[in-house]
């Protein structure tokens, strides 16, 4: 099992966030690969995190789409890979699911076991993609593990490397298109609805905030493109910020959600 992290100009954030989280989860640093965009970035990360110097990979493709494609192609087919953003503070769940109020966060420190279960479920259901709940909100967590169409967030997901992965054509909503493409190819994606991530983005002078007018236009272009291309899987919904509209994934050809299990890691 390997871990892939794409990162740019965020050595300190990477060290204090994702790498610290992986260490608490007993992920060995030899299994962690950092993907950077240039020789200069490789030098910066080699100097800032010398213990990872041997696992820094040059990824010349630009943008989220190019980076994801390069990461997918870097690992031999059949390899189990966990993909993480560089700003993940912790994986979390809640202490109880059967009550609306009073839920408390619990940090998940069993990522290897969670990932192993995700990859096992992928193989059981003959698919290649699993993920976690994309919303950091105690009320949005559900005590279910599903294989129905679901949004697999790019910040933390697992994939089984393929020789011919789905082609991603959108600019910034690559995780939505990846979720759709894998679902159409294999008939399932696996999602742990009882785990989510606490992150920190665009602070401490590192990295960049992506809320510009240009990014907003790219967002809207992707939204309308995906809705037009997959009208039976993509629904539009209003939002207060960032373009005023976004998408939800739902297979309107089906009526039942495929619940295949419940959280078990915390009940052992």
Give your account of this protein's structure.
It is a single chain. The protein has helices spanning 11-16, 18-24, 39-48, 63-74, 111-124, 174-186, 213-229; strands spanning 2-6, 32-36, 56-58, 80-84, 88-94, 105-108, 129-132, 145-146, 156-160, 190-192, 196-199, 234-238, 245-249, 259-261. By secondary structure, it is of the alpha/beta class. The protein has a nine-stranded mixed β-sheet, with helices on both faces. α3 (39-48) links the parallel β2 and β3 (56-58).
How do the strands and helices of this protein lay out in sequence?
Blueprint: E1 2-6, H1 11-16, H2 18-24, E2 32-36, H3 39-48, E3 56-58, H4 63-74, E4 80-84, E5 88-94, E6 105-108, H5 111-124, E7 129-132, E8 145-146, E9 156-160, H6 174-186, E10 190-192, E11 196-199, H7 213-229, E12 234-238, E13 245-249, E14 259-261
Parallel strand pairs: 1-2, 1-4, 2-3, 7-10
Antiparallel strand pairs: 4-9, 5-6, 5-11, 7-9, 8-10, 8-14, 12-13
């Amino acid at each position: 099992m390997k871990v892939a992290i794409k990162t740019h100009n965020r050595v300190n954030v990477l060290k204090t966030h994702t790498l610290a989280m992986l260490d608490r989860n007993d992920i060995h640093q030899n299994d962690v690969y950092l993907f950077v965009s240039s020789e200069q970035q490789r030098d910066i990360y080699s100097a800032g995190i010398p213990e990872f110097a041997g696992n820094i990979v040059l990824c010349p493709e630009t943008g989220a789409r190019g980076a994801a494609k390069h990461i997918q192609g870097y690992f031999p087919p059949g390899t189990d890979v966990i993909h993480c953003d560089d700003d993940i503070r912790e994986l979390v769940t809640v202490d109880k699911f059967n009550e609306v109020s009073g839920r408390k966060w619990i940090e998940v420190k069993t990522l290897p076991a969670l990932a192993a279960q995700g990859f096992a479920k992928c193989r059981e259901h003959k698919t290649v993609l699993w993920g976690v709940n994309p919303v950091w909100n105690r009320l949005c967590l559900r005590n279910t593990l599903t294989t129905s169409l679901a949004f697999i967030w790019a910040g933390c997901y697992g994939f089984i490397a393929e020789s011919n992965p789905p082609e991603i054509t959108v600019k910034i909503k690559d995780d939505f298109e990846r979720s759709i493409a894998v679902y159409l190819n294999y008939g399932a994606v696996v999602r742990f609805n009882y785990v989510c991530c606490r992150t920190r983005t665009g602070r401490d002078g590192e990295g960049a905030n992506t809320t510009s007018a240009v990014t907003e236009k790219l967002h809207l272009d992707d939204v309308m493109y995906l809705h037009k291309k997959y009208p039976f899987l993509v629904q539009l919904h209003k939002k207060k910020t960032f373009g005023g509209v976004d998408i939800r994934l739902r297979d309107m050809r089906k009526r039942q959600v495929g619940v295949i299990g419940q959280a078990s890691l915390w009940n052992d």
